[in-house]
Amino acid sequence: MRVPPAVYVLGSSIFVLGTTEFMIAGLLPTIATDLDVSIPDAGLLISGFAIGMTIGAPVMAVATLRLPRKATLLAAAAVFLAGHVVAALAPTYELLMAARVVTAVATGAFWAVAAVVTVRISPPGTTARALAVLVGGLTLSNVLGVPAGTWVGQQLGWRAAFWAVAGLAVLTTLAVVALVPKSAGAASEPPRVRDELRVFRGRRIWLALATTATFQAAMFAAFSYFAPLLTDVAGLDEADVPLVLALFGLGSFIGITIGGRIADRGLFLNIFGSLVALAVTMSVLALVSGSTAGAVAAVFAVGVAGFSIAPGLNARVFVVAGDAPTLASSVNTSAFNVGNTVGPWLGGAAISAGWGYVAPVWLAAGLALAGLVLALTAWAHEQRHERALAAAAQPRTAPAPVGAAASTPPVACDA
Question: What is the pTM of this model?
Answer without folding.
Answer: 0.77
